[in-house]
Specification:
CATH superfamily: Methylpurine-DNA glycosylase (MPG)
Structural class: mainly beta
CATH architecture: Roll
Distance between the termini: 28 Å
Helix content: 10-25%
Largest sheet: 9 strands, antiparallel
Number of strands: 9
Number of helices: 3
CATH class: Alpha Beta
Mean pLDDT: 94
Strand content: 25-35%
CATH topology: 3-methyladenine DNA Glycosylase, Chain A
Length: 221
């Protein structure tokens, strides 16, 4: 199936980490697979800003084999494994040498739900709100793994894209990031962003630091 979605341009990924975190909530993630097109709206993300952010893998500013892509150009995929079994997808941000990235935490599934459920080994009747409501869940559902490390996220088969039509007006909530107990005071930084009241976010009841009206995607004029 030919994708009707328009991939973002590389220049659209050349924003500050904070600007891009807001912008991601206007976009969708697309994976063109042998089993069909998989599409989900990004409804939650977290920004990580090394080398000073103790929550970031790039804390301390010393590149490793795992984090080397974070020190490269913006717009590439940083994929890593957690708990020995779940992959997580991040979008590298900022200029070369600045190791920032944004974790894609949750999606609202839009297309290819049956394939996503098979990938997650779930019954087809399972509540879709749980299908991609977490970074490990969404990578499993979309078939994202180590093969996608360093992939440019404006190019097929895995890419960020504009929605087919503008989303209805929505609010963006900000609050502390999740599952980084090791990060000291950085645990409290309000660097998690999500579509307020969307049922597909991973932790919808987590504390809200700020709530603001989302800006529309400039793609729509």
């Amino acid at each position: 199936m030919k994708s009707p979605y328009v991939a973002v341009a590389p220049t659209e990924l050349q924003k500050s980490t904070e600007e891009l975190a807001y912008q991601l909530l206007n976009w969708v993630l697309v994976n063109e697979t042998a089993d069909g097109l998989l599409v989900g709206r990004i409804v939650e993300c977290e920004m990580y800003q090394g080398p000073d952010d103790r929550g970031a893998h790039s804390y301390g500013g010393k590149p490793t084999d795992r984090t080397r892509v974070m020190y490269g150009s913006p717009g590439y995929a940083y994929v890593y494994l957690i708990y020995g079994m779940y992959y997580c997808l991040n979008v590298v941000t900022e200029a070369e040498g600045v190791p920032h990235a944004i974790l894609v935490r949750a999606l609202e599934p839009l297309h290819g739900l049956d394939t996503m459920k098979r990938n997650r080994m779930l019954k087809t009747t399972r509540n879709t709100a749980e299908l991609t409501s977490g970074p490990g869940k969404l990578c499993q559902a979309f078939g994202i793994d180590r093969r996608h490390y360093g992939h440019p996220l404006w190019a097929s088969p895995l890419y960020l894209a504009h929605a087919l039509t503008p989303w209805p007006s929505f609010q963006v909530a900000r609050g502390p990031r999740i599952n980084i107990a090791y990060a000291g005071e950085a645990r409290q930084y309000p660097w998690r962003f999500w579509v307020y009241n969307n049922p597909h976010v991973s932790k919808p009841t987590n504390s809200v630091t700020t709530l603001e009206q989302a800006l529309p995607d400039p793609f729509w004029g």
